[in-house]
Amino acid sequence: MTGETPQDTPLPAPLPASPAPPAGDDAASQWLARSRAELSGTALGPEAVSIGRVERIADAIAQVSGLPEVRLNELLHFEGGQTGFALTLDRDTISTVILDAASAIEAGMKVSRTGAVVQVPIGPGLLGRIVDPLGRPLDGGDPVVAEAYHPVERPAPSIIERDLVTEQVNTGILVVDALFTLGRGQRELIIGDRATGKTAIAVDTIISQKDSDIVCVYVAVGQRATAVERVIEAVRQHGAPEKCIFVVASAASAPGLQWIAPFAGMTIAEYFRDKGQHALIVIDDLSKHAVTHRELALLTREPVGREAYPGDIFYLHARLLERASKLSKELGGGSLTALPVAETDAGNLSAYIPTNLISITDGQIVLGSQLFAANHRPAVDVGLSVSRVGGKAQHPALRQVSGRIRLDYSQFLELEMFSRFGGIADTRVKAQLTRGERIRALLSQPRFATLRPVDEIALLAALAAGVLDEVPVAAMPELRARIPGHIDASVPDAGKALAGDAKLDDGMRDRLVETVRSLAAGLREPGS
Fold first, then answer.
1. For every one of its 528 residues, what pLDDT tens digit does the chain have, with 9 covering 90 and above?
2. β-strands 189-192, 363-367 pairing
């Protein structure tokens, strides 16, 4: 019918109401100019908006209908202001993981598309901050000043974009630096039973970077809030928190936040790598992340596989850890080193998640509960631990003095086992046992007592020269604690001489050995 508006044609939006012009010709002209300036930027015309509705909501998963064009992992806005992302796309509904409090979402609520996937802020404005996986501050500070926003899911660098891993990440932990060297761009798994010191190794590595050029990102996934607070406080007391970023999705956070936390942390760390800098990311831990993925998969009715984990859990962690890399010189030469943490049950390394992560990473540091109970800290099992990069990235001087330590220590452990059955009269075997006891005491290291590369080189050179054979085992902790100050006083140029890729010449080796010898002689004196 003429003059009627069709039902399917939306009416144009009314123009914003303008205030009445004031009295007076000059005032009216000014008001007219202001009104024209305000209206000049107003976009007029039709606008298409996709609106869906919540069919049902349970366990932080909303089933949404009416949005057939939604992309996987696209961010959705709910009527009450909450956000979520599309996890699975079915024929009629979308399984949406809620990223905020789900208690306020009800069936029938409107849901709108954003056209963008889940993104996280990046840039130097995050340094020193504690944020959630969406970049929202948790430290009570101002909103994060972001240089840009990048998707949490990004493709890993291709092979042609990568370079060889040849530079060492100094962890400050002697057993790791000497036996299982960590290279810049490497992925080294830290695995062991509950409460065996996995997080302690990662935190000590972060603390050891306070004087290096490496930016650290710590990602807490499913951890207790008190445990995360202890980590942050340890870095504040002993490290350089202004060079660290803490991405926290604690056990009390929404499952969706825990799921995207490792990917968000990786995106944040990639910013520094792509700028030609060096970054280290600790993901604590991927076992809890796998449990969260299994929880979301079961709630969205995905088929389960081994140990009730969905079949894509391997691909999930593989595409995450593949993003750690050393870039080529043409791309700036930056690096991103990953230290994922995983938990075992009763030392079972053959379980589904541990075997997945071991096959994905470039090596593993295995912690033993028996070693931990025997007060051997860090409780690194040297027989099961391995670094597939190892000596190729080790400092040349450190490689010179640590060549035989693993073999000597392994032989000692076997001899010690046999020596329990009876006395050993062989002088050579007794010397091996004496040397092995000193190696074990030397590799035991308290928390927050990281060593510099020059300290590690001096101790290992003295060990190889037999200087430590006469030092009582009980005096080894004091020797290790006093060695940094003693080297600075006796060989002040050692740190500069061994910087970079410098090798250890005979003159410097003799000076370091004599320095340790003089310190050890004082410890052998009665009453010292």
1. 434 444 444 444 454 554 555 555 677 788 888 877 777 777 767 777 789 999 999 999 999 999 999 999 999 999 989 999 999 999 889 999 999 888 889 999 999 999 899 999 999 999 999 999 999 999 999 999 999 999 999 999 999 999 999 999 999 999 999 999 999 999 999 999 999 999 999 999 999 999 999 999 999 999 999 999 999 999 999 999 999 999 999 999 999 999 999 999 999 999 999 999 999 999 999 999 999 999 999 999 888 899 999 999 999 999 999 999 999 999 999 999 999 999 999 999 999 999 999 999 999 999 999 999 989 999 999 989 999 987 789 999 999 998 888 888 888 888 888 777 666 667 788 888 888 999 999 999 999 999 999 999 999 999 999 899 888 999 999 999 999 999 999 999 998 888 888 899 999 999 999 999 999 987 765 444
2. parallel
239 is known to lie in a ligand binding site: no
CA atoms within 13 A on the CB side of 505: 5
Residues 6+ apart with CB under 8 A from 71: 86, 117
Alpha carbons within 13 angstroms on the beta-carbon side of residue 439 total 26
Query: How far, in Å, are 262, 275, 283, 446 from residue 310 at the CA level?
Result: 18, 36, 21, 40
* Residue 2 labeled ligand binder: no
The reply to whether 355 sits in an annotated binding site is no
SS3 at position 58: strand
| 141 annotated ligand binder | no
Closest CA to 288 of 342, 360, 357: 342
Q: Where do we find the tokens 């670094």?
A: 387
Whether 113 is a known active-site residue: answer no
- Structural domains in the chain, sorted by start: 51-117 (2.40.30.20), 121-140+148-394 (3.40.50.300), 400-524 (1.20.150.20)
What pTM was computed for the model? 0.88
* Euclidean distance between CA atoms 158 and 323, whole angstroms: 9
Given the residues 53, 162, 230, 388, select the one marked as catalytic. 388
